[in-house]
Design a protein that fits this description.
Chain lengths: ~325, ~325
């Protein structure tokens, strides 16, 4: 098994009220690079921040790192189009962040990213890839892609109150700017990414298609953004078995139906509950309050822990250790 | 401990008779990318070759990989200026291969690479870095840098017959083209790299200086190319303890005196003999005949194995397994 983290940025995240991943424009640009460093090294190296949401919720990358410290899985970070440098080693599939989907052609290099992703997925020696993502604003671009594909699935949010109507307005504006109606891209999945998506979706769907083509097992690690990636794979005409692994926080989100969407797309669906209820710590209590929910492959990493018989209690213990090391004991 | 592999290319390698790392121009461009993939994944992924010298000697990266399979050390691949893509994840410090040192200004971005290397070395969380390199033609550029610095050390070669007089002619031409006399760059180490070196030397000396500045232990893994990197560190005025770990094949090379050079530069010197004499296999017999000798951090990796109490017999066994997996049993 190899854990792949696809990192990117989209200017769509800059729209007021869209994302919990970083309070400011600067923090937003540095969140994916910092997530990658955190999972690679256990701490940010070149990124100037530990990503923490406005109300103090630590990035789900800390959970993924805690699982890595317990299971020692190999990591491959993919740069699909970051907005700031990362000190983590990356395979680069794209060379720029995605634009705001309210404008035309926000991901002009979608086909190139996808093609390189396919080549990468084909080339890796691993019989199992778990593919996570980190891109602030990504649930909105996921909604854009699902709408363009004609897939009627709502997306979840990193905010406790899902700004659903704002996201729908943004998608509507985007469709108008791109001269598209819902479902127009059903047979042109890469056009859906190019006009309504983000670089991460091009990369993840490409890597998945490449790995599936050589018979590898593929687990998409995440929530409704990975539903969009899975839909892109299905709209490429790929019927191979495909898995989605997410957290209980996404699965229990009443504003979206990730389980129903997974069933519609023929995905094997795994939900892992890290048991944060049992713990009183700032690293976990925000998740119980519905913040963040998922991201940086958290759900897939937890599923890996379960497959390897590492208990959730051990993961929680390691998570607190990671958090205290990074943010200071008691969540300074 | 983290193992850093600095990869780059120099057009100097294209000079007929200079390098054993690849029989053809194409093979030469793909050797560092393939070395990186080999150590990262255990096999080439996007690189179209398993690097093997004209007479069938496998790349020393296989030895480094064998040690990694026995000790599971973390790997960081640095792209200082490759001539072909690699499927290994990299931190990119440079954006182009070095030019032929017989021309002016072969490494115009030497300062930028060095500065990014310092930043990277400072930023990594590890208390010990073992830094290896892979760059065909690198012993000639190392001789160029040592000459420009006024360090009177001959360099070794990946060829059994060291083409010393050819290398000296190339360096002489380079000095003339750059309007330099031997020793002119003693106080300007980055000028030595820029006019007479290669991108790897800028990267390795930078990473070493960055790591030393925060008190980390640094082991330069390799032969006379790492002597050049160490000389660059010393000519920056850095007196901190610094280690060089190489193979017995370099240490026993009568055409150079790596031990004497290490002593002159105040380096802690470690030689590891992998005991290839005891083995009859195509993967090892070339080394006993003086081919390749070192590279891709082989000597440093062997030293790591010794520090971790992994026997050379275990490394040799793993090496044969790696080789047979890659090239086919009995060296097809």
């Amino acid at each position: 098994m190899r854990f792949v983290l696809a990192c990117a940025a989209t200017e769509t995240a800059q729209i007021e009220g869209i994302s919990a991943a970083g309070a400011t424009r600067t923090l937003m640009a540095h969140t994916p690079p910092a997530d990658a460093e955190l999972i690679e090294y256990g701490e940010p190296t070149l990124a100037p921040v530990v990503p923490v949401s406005p109300d103090g919720c630590p990035t789900p990358a800390i959970v993924t790192r805690a699982v890595r410290e317990c299971t020692d899985f190999p990591l491959l970070v993919v740069d699909a189009g970051l907005a700031a440098q990362t000190g983590a080693p990356t395979v680069d599939l794209g060379d720029r962040p995605g634009g705001d989907i309210r404008n035309r052609d926000p991901v002009p290099n979608a086909v190139a990213i996808y093609d390189r992703g396919v080549e990468l997925g084909e080339s890796l020696p691993d019989d199992h890839l778990v593919i996570g993502e980190t891109i602030p604003g990504g649930t909105t671009t996921a909604l854009g892609v699902l709408t363009a594909l004609g897939e009627p699935h709502a997306t979840s949010s990193s905010l406790p109150e899902n700004p659903q109507s704002l996201k729908e307005r943004v998608v509507e504006e985007g469709l108008t700017a791109s001269n598209l109606a819902p479902g127009d891209c059903a047979e042109y999945p890469l056009e859906a990414v190019r006009q309504m998506g983000d670089p991460m979706l091009a990369a993840v769907s490409g890597i998945a298609v490449g790995a599936l083509s050589r018979g590898a097992r593929v687990t998409l690690a995440g929530g409704t953004q990975q539903i969009a990636a899975a839909a892109l794979v299905r709209h490429q005409g790929i019927e191979a078995p495909l898995e989605l692994a997410t957290t209980s926080f996404v699965a229990n989100d009443p504003s979206s139906d990730v389980q129903g969407a997974a069933a519609d797309l023929g995905l094997t669906f795994t939900v892992t509950d890290p048991g944060f209820d049992d713990q009183e710590h700032v690293a976990t209590e925000h998740y119980c309050a519905g913040v963040a929910k998922e991201g940086a492959g958290m759900g897939g990493a937890l599923a890996v822990a379960v497959e390897r018989d590492v208990s959730m209690a051990a993961i929680r213990e390691q998570l607190v250790e990671c958090y205290d090391r990074l943010v200071g004991a008691n969540g300074a």
